[in-house]
Recover the amino acids of this structure.
């Protein structure tokens, strides 16, 4: 074998040896290496996230006075709308508690809300994930539901010291119990393979035969509240079509998700006050 040929093949030999050693490593060592690598890269992600926030701050400082006044008026109108909704929610909550006391029903699990900034996005065909800027330091547990003002974002999959990884609603790794808004019968929702630069989609299965949906008359899909993870009634998306399964006993179809899932900058993690809920 000539020296030149040996030099050309050397990188492949080294790569093969490293791959073989990685396969022979115990699972615990692999997990430790993965967690260590993630924690080692976290400061760089943090720095990039804070740099984006600083850039946005200085870009807002360049706005004219008229633009700032218009923004202040818009925020005032939005705050007034939110105040009205808060009062309405308080009234509905008191009515719910009153009915639960009358019927002696158990109350829904209570959560506290932890707001977190999005550090990084990982969008591919088979993986739809976000990394948020809070983790064990904020008491976030694995499995906690994540939401925003448009509905469900996803579920916390991994928790580290100062960050957490969220499986998005569009990820095939996420499956949850869903129902048509106004109908209590539950069925299954799962994220699907989503190519880049397209609106996120999911699929529903085991839908009752008397439920119909089409692009002209979509059905609003919400969480069913089963499993104790997601509270009931949070928006998932809209069912665009339903067709009979191969066995003819149920229907399955496609769900269009909120397009803002690809552009989130801030999310809310629902941390259960009772850890046994997860």
């Amino acid at each position: 074998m000539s020296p030149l040929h040996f030099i050309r093949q050397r990188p492949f030999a080294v790569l093969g040896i490293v791959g073989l050693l990685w396969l022979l490593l115990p699972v615990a060592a692999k997990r430790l290496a993965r967690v260590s690598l993630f924690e080692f890269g976290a400061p760089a992600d943090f720095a990039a996230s804070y740099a984006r926030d600083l850039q946005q701050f200085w870009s807002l400082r360049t706005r004219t006075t008229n633009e700032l006044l218009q923004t202040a008026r818009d925020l005032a109108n939005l705050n007034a709308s939110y105040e009205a909704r808060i009062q309405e929610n308080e009234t509905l909550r008191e009515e719910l508690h009153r009915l639960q006391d009358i019927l002696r029903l158990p109350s829904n699990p209570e959560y506290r809300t932890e707001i977190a900034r999005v550090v990084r996005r990982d969008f591919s065909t088979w993986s739809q994930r976000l990394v948020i800027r809070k983790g064990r330091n904020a008491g976030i547990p694995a499995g906690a539901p994540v939401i925003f003002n448009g509905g469900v974002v996803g579920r916390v999959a991994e928790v580290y010291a100062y960050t957490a990884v969220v499986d998005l609603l569009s990820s095939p790794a996420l499956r949850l119990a869903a129902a048509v808004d106004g109908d209590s019968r539950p069925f299954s929702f799962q994220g699907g393979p989503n190519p880049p630069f397209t609106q996120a989609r999911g699929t529903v299965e085991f839908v009752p035969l008397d439920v119909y949906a089409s692009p002209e008359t979509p059905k609003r899909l919400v969480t069913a509240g089963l499993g104790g993870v997601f509270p009931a009634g949070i928006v998932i998306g809209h069912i665009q079509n339903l067709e009979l399964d191969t066995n003819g006993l149920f229907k399955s179809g496609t769900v269009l998700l909120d397009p803002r899932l690809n552009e989130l900058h801030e999310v809310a993690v629902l941390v259960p006050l009772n850890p046994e809920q997860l």
Notes: Residues 65-103 form the longest helix (39 residues). Helices lie at 3-24, 27-61, 65-103. The longest strand covers residues 111-123.
